[in-house]
Amino acid sequence: MDFLSDTLVLSRMQFALTAIFHMLWPVLTTGMSIYLVIVEGIWLKTRNKDYYYHARFWSKLFILNFGIGVATGIPMEFQFGTNWAPFSEAVGNFFGSVIGFEASWAFMLEAAFLGIMVFGWERVNSVIHYLSTILVAVGSNLSTFWILTANSWMQTPAGGELIDGKFVVRDYFEAITNPFMVNSVLHMFFATLETSLFVIGGISAWYILKNRHPEFFSKSFKIVVAAAIAVAPLQLYIGHLSGEQVYHYQPAKLAAMEAQWETIPAGQGGDWSLVAFPNEKAQKNDWEITVPNALGYILEFKKELTLPVKGLKEWQPEDRPHLVGLIYYAFRTMIAIGFFLAGLMLISTLQWMRGKLSPENISQQRWLMGSWIFAAPLGYIAIESGWIVRCVGRQPWTLYGQIRTVDSASNLPASNVLTSLTAFAIVYSILFFCVLYFGSRIIRRGPRFDLPIPGLEPQPALETQPGEFLPAERPVEAKQ
Fold this sequence. Notes:
This protein has helices at residues 7-46, 49-82, 85-119, 126-155, 172-176, 181-209, 214-249, 251-257, 294-300, 324-353, 366-375, 378-392, 414-445, 476-479, and strands at 160-163, 166-169, 272-279, 284-291, 397-399, 403-404.
């Protein structure tokens, strides 16, 4: 239990806890906001009231996730000033600006129009309401852009240099468009969208399996399948591009992802490890199953490697990632889920083409609906696994190759960090069960079909009474 007296370890554990918990909620808000734009657009185009009820129903889950996301995001950002003050002081010229952009450009935009989107159905015209829904979606996904820009810069710092312990920005545009930025933003964008699609599809499948409004939820299910046809394969391809970037820019992380201890020279084929038991102390894998010559095809679509794949032994222990087993299996978990979701999408598409997803037949597809229910939480697991690979694999660096994690932590008493870590664990556990309770309550109650439809159903007139004017009721001081 020596880690209980280590401030650095406790600070990393606290940031891991708050980041992993916070990540659960923006994932659904960013992806579901796009879905809400789609269903409201279909409603305005067709005036089919089912799509209006879909927009009202799914927005409830959106609001629940948005609220918890805000509540858990603020403490996570504050930690940069409390637990990671030396890092914040060193990189604040750029990193602080980007985090500020996320709050002022993205969160404020999203929050400003959220009220109109939620409460404005009978209060504003349809064009204004739809514009508000679009701007909420834009704000949600701008958050993804700025957060991933900041994190990508930590992975591949650009646009300046460290001078006397402070990062001096020479070119903001170069820093923002650092080598990891484009693929990282796209990878996360499609991850949130894919996760949201399978959550919506899984909930719709649950209703269909329970024979509760099967015709109604077959509409949302088909929208999800149609969108997944494009999203799932694109996500796999962009994930491959991200892996190629790790190959070129972060070879130590790649070695940890593959539990590769020995260097594979250029011009040779490399075996790909399917399953292994990494042993960091012995610097080898105690046991593994490999696919011969598959690593070259995975990295470069050919047998022989153009560049060497360095093994972990190329770096001193203090200069390479630890927790190799965690990185190795988190990476494989992410890949396995990605292919599973793509396969489920393909099977669902084939069933749709065979006419099995029609309102008359969809309730009979019990195995398919069960698979979608099973798949609903898998996107979350894949995203959390990806972030573990991304951030744990970056160690021992906070700013890759320039600022070490050990030099980034605030000099705090370990007891203080342990207290805050314990408090976060307790509060977040309570919040998690509250979200499960209220989320399941929303799902159990289902959509409300008695809501008035704007523009189609007359609104009841409000009965008002004229107010009585009472002059000179103000205090004497206010009259002067």
